[in-house]
Amino acid sequence: MYKVKVFITLRENVLDPQGTAVESALHSMSFEAVRDVRIGKYMELTIEKTDQDIDDAVKEMCERLLANTVIEDYRYEIEEVVAL
Amino acid sequence: MYKVKVFITLRENVLDPQGTAVESALHSMSFEAVRDVRIGKYMELTIEKTDQDIDDAVKEMCERLLANTVIEDYRYEIEEVVAL
């Protein structure tokens, strides 16, 4: 069994209006020291062990479904969980 | 300057219909080994150094704005960036 964490972020040159809104809200709550906010997605997947290489499988999931690679970057961490 | 990463996830006993939809989609793409998908938010904040304790500040931002603590959990990582 694997526990996979996927982080999806907007590419650097893509505008992030949601982040800008959160930044303004934080400023109005007197957190003026906040300079930049970028908002992305975080996913936790539990995947059973199969014959397929886990790294290849997760990469394909990200490319084909989880991330829009035109405007988003992704990275992931794979952790093997040993059932007791 | 600090770089703060905030991870917001749904509490374990809260249903995640978005995660269920992604899981079904992955199954239909022949990734049948996927057992569970939970979707959360990932935020990157850049914060300037001030007199206020950064840990307290980030905690207050999460509690008051970034997370809905009734249904969501949050955790964060603070990294100090030294300007060159």
TrEMBL record, chains A, B:
<dbReference type="Pfam" id="PF02700">
    <property type="entry name" value="PurS"/>
</dbReference>
<comment type="subunit">
    <text>Part of the FGAM synthase complex composed of 1 PurL, 1 PurQ and 2 PurS subunits.</text>
</comment>
<comment type="similarity">
    <text>Belongs to the PurS family.</text>
</comment>
<keyword id="KW-0547">Nucleotide-binding</keyword>
<dbReference type="InterPro" id="IPR003850">
    <property type="entry name" value="PurS"/>
</dbReference>
<keyword id="KW-0658">Purine biosynthesis</keyword>
<comment type="function">
    <text>Part of the phosphoribosylformylglycinamidine synthase complex involved in the purines biosynthetic pathway. Catalyzes the ATP-dependent conversion of formylglycinamide ribonucleotide (FGAR) and glutamine to yield formylglycinamidine ribonucleotide (FGAM) and glutamate. The FGAM synthase complex is composed of three subunits. PurQ produces an ammonia molecule by converting glutamine to glutamate. PurL transfers the ammonia molecule to FGAR to form FGAM in an ATP-dependent manner.</text>
</comment>
<keyword id="KW-0067">ATP-binding</keyword>
<comment type="pathway">
    <text>Purine metabolism; IMP biosynthesis via de novo pathway; 5-amino-1-(5-phospho-D-ribosyl)imidazole from N(2)-formyl-N(1)-(5-phospho-D-ribosyl)glycinamide: step 1/2.</text>
</comment>
<protein>
    <recommendedName>
        <fullName>Phosphoribosylformylglycinamidine synthase subunit PurS</fullName>
        <ecNumber>6.3.5.3</ecNumber>
    </recommendedName>
</protein>
<dbReference type="GO" id="GO:0004642">
    <property type="term" value="F:phosphoribosylformylglycinamidine synthase activity"/>
</dbReference>
<dbReference type="InterPro" id="IPR036604">
    <property type="entry name" value="PurS-like_sf"/>
</dbReference>
<keyword id="KW-0963">Cytoplasm</keyword>
<keyword id="KW-0436">Ligase</keyword>
